[in-house]
Amino acid sequence: MTTTKGPSVVSEHAGGLAVEGRLIEDGGAVRILVRDGVVAELKRLDREPTSDAWIAPGWLDIQVNGFGGHDPNAADAQGQDVVAMVRDLWQWGTAAVCPTICTQSEARILSSLRAVADACDADPLVAASVVGIHVEGPHIAREDGPRGAHPLEHVRPPDIAEYRRWQEAARGRIRIITVSPEYEESVAYVRAIVADGVVASVGHTRADGDQIRSAVDAGARSSTHLGNGAHALIARHPNYIWDQLAEDRLSAGFIFDGHHLPPAVMRTVVRAKGIERTILVTDALALAGLPPGVHASAVGGDVELLPSGRVVLRGTPYLAGSAATLGVCLGNAVRHAGVTMHDAVRMVTANPSRLLGLDLARGHETVRIGMDANLTVFRQESVLSDPTVLATIIAGQLAWSANDR
Fold first, then answer.
1. How far, in whole angstroms, is CA 198 from its chain's centroid?
2. What is the per-residue pLDDT for 382?
3. What is the mean pLDDT of residues 25-44?
4. In CATH, what class is 59-356?
């Protein structure tokens, strides 16, 4: 089993795998040997590598609502649906993921959380890939605009007892919760989930600066797809976007799919947050990877995927999630935000890994001997092109190869 462009990029070797290319971290030519699930050897080469591949820590997406027609938010979602979603993501280089469960009734949220937990119990490689669950809502703004495509009838104030029930259903796998600080219950809620090791992320909010600051003081550490899930028209200043951009204690997720944020905004938000606090997310819906057309979605109802890749609520110009992959977001970061591919890759590896508090040995921050072999191998033809994924390696196994196409 090999992945090739001329000479092999990934090949079988001594009961494991060999990967040859250049490390995205420093551009050095290397040959990596993977055995027993870890990076066993990392040899620096004194010659040109036999391929033009870039080797990166496994790409990590902390906000994926669904993919390839598989939807963990669906009323009838089962573990096998989540398994299929995660496996579909591997072909696009996403080695690690936080399946994202959105605003619904408590019964529906509990059912979706159990489906993710069941998937992890059923498939060890999926369990290695699912680094946590992101619950986006239901404790968000009620107003049109900040609420986004979330159903109004299920929006409700933060409830610590409900969170405990979620975590029991998820078997302890919840790692991020998006919450609006505008509720009087929000500060106590943020403190409670942070004490459990869960990241509190500000999002879908109409909160003012004092409320945002109070949430950050209580332990909130992130902003969910900042610049989206907002009013179409807001005060020039102050407003909740400026307040979050200026808050250095908050990392921020951004959807660089080419539709949610225009190029000038991409460049500006990266300058404001800095490379180290910028995280790229897809916010992908289940229709990502499907042909253009109208699709029924558990998130947003009837949505339309346009030929351009833009996803809108049917019959409106309003965005309703994304159909992007991380490769598209990386390509846009290079083209429009003015960063190098090295720095863009940090936004889908080291930065989200640190936000989640993953152990360095998990291999999503850097490639070193003894670390888990979680790798994304890709090629980029030019700065104008999106990366082409060649292979995805998870826990030392070749989870996907371009040869499988």
1. 16
2. 85
3. 97
4. alpha beta
pTM score, whole prediction? 0.95
Residue 324 has pLDDT above 80, yes or no: yes
Mean pLDDT score of the chain? 94
Measure the CA–CA gap between 149 and 140, rounded to whole angstroms. Answer: 11
Query: What tens digit of pLDDT does each residue of 165-213 get?
Result: 999 999 999 999 999 999 999 999 999 999 999 999 999 999 999 999 9
Tell me which architecture the domain covering 3-56+363-404 has in CATH: Roll (2.30)
Q: Is the peptide bond before 99 cis (omega within 30 degrees of 0)?
A: no
> In whole angstroms, how far apart are CA 159 and each of 118, 119, 179, 192, 356?
25, 27, 11, 10, 22
CA 17 to chain centre: 27
Q: Could you state, in order of their start, the residue ranges of all structural domains in the chain? A: 3-56+363-404, 59-356
SS (H, E, C) the chain: CCEECCCEEEEEECCEEEEEEEECCCCCEEEEEEECCEEEEEEECCCCCCCCCEEEECEEEEEECCECCECCCCCCCCHHHHHHHHHHHHCCCEEEEEEEEECCCHHHHHHHHHHHHHHHHHCHHHHHHECCEEEECCCCCCCCCCCCCCCHHHCCCCCHHHHHHHHHHCCCCEEEEEECCCCCCHHHHHHHHHHCCCEEEECCCCCCHHHHHHHHHHCCCEECCCCCCCCCCCCCCCCHHHHHHHCCCCEEEECCCCCCCCHHHHHHHHHHHCHHHEEECCCECCCCCCCCEEEEECCCEEEEECCCCEEEECCCCCEEEECCCHHHHHHHHHHHCCCCHHHHHHCCCHHHHHHHCCCHHHCCCCCCCCCECCEEEEECCCCCCCCEEEEEEECCEEEEEHHHC
Per-residue pLDDT at 309 exceeds 60: yes
Across the range 205-234, mean pLDDT stands at 97
Give residue-wise pLDDT tens across range 68-123.
999 999 999 999 999 999 999 999 999 999 999 999 999 999 999 999 999 999 99
pLDDT of residue 405: 56
pLDDT of residue 297 exceeding 80: no
